[in-house]
From TrEMBL:
Keywords: Isomerase. NCBIfam families: maleylpyruvate isomerase family mycothiol-dependent enzyme. The keyword Oxidoreductase does not apply. InterPro entries: DinB/YfiT-like, Maleyloyr_isom, MDMPI_C-term_domain, MDMPI_metal-binding. It comes from Saccharothrix mutabilis subsp. mutabilis. One of its GO terms (molecular function) is isomerase activity. This is Maleylpyruvate isomerase family mycothiol-dependent enzyme.
Length: 238
């Protein structure tokens, strides 16, 4: 996605998360994050926003991670951190160098993309706790699927993740990916005959990869063990 579109998504999703969190008691459970309450969720996302702000401004991974609101209202604390993050992640500077955890993308744009998706998935969590989760924007979800496959699996794929190198196709309106998992390698094999095909809206497929949507909400053809192996691999690295 264009950096300016990602910046707009980050602003929109950050605001929507706070609005949803304000609608429910802080001890309300978050369906997509077992054992986590809305207060825990807000504190987690607020702490990630602060960590990344420090990472960018200091030029290296911070040793300390500010996680505690310190008596402040958690949603207010979250809003302050989100505003600081958004101010730092200027889309006009997306190509400028920045310290990141990705070996092949050390630009400010990496964080702009990563924080847009991080915030969007957790916005869904907050809205689900309030009983009104809206789907992800189509373009954002398409980019989110790409990010999961190329960034998360590409950087962190565990040795035991592969399922005999069998290919799986993920298909959403206007786009599809065919991948096979090997030891430490994600093979984008567009010409392969897939062992399974997973289809659905871009939002549903992206949220399924993140464990927020069950397999039953997608169309699955072929070997379901390959589908579950992909989902398990993603769960292992995110």
């Amino acid at each position: 996605m264009d950096p300016h579109a990602l910046a707009g998504a980050l602003r929109t999703e950050a605001t929507a998360l706070a609005v949803a969190a304000d609608l429910v008691p802080p001890d309300r459970p978050v369906p997509g994050c077992p054992g986590m309450t809305v207060a825990d969720l807000v504190q987690h996302v607020g702490s990630v926003h602060r960590l990344v702000t420090r990472w960018v401004t200091r030029g290296s991974r911070p040793r300390e991670w500010p996680r505690d609101p310190g008596g402040a209202d958690p949603v207010d604390w979250y809003r302050i951190g989100a505003a600081s993050l958004i101010a730092v992640l200027d889309p006009a500077r997306a190509v400028e160098p920045a310290a990141t955890w990705c070996p092949w993308d050390r630009t400010l744009g990496f964080w702009l993309r990563r924080m847009a998706h991080e915030t969007a998935v957790h916005r869904v969590d907050a809205q689900a706790a309030a009983g009104l989760a809206a789907p992800l924007d189509h373009a954002l979800a398409v980019d989110g699927i790409e990010e999961v496959l190329r960034l998360w699996l590409g950087c962190h794929l565990p040795p035991a993740a592969h399922r005999d190198g069998l290919a799986i196709t993920l298909r959403v309106p206007g786009r599809e990916w065919t991948v096979a998992l090997h030891e430490h390698v994600v093979d984008f094999c567009a010409t392969a005959d897939p062992a399974a095909v997973v289809s659905g809206s871009a939002s549903a497929v992206d949220l399924w990869l993140w464990g927020r949507v069950p397999e039953s909400e997608l169309s699955v053809e072929g070997d379901r063990s390959v589908v579950r192996a992909l989902r398990a691999a993603v769960a292992g690295v995110t």
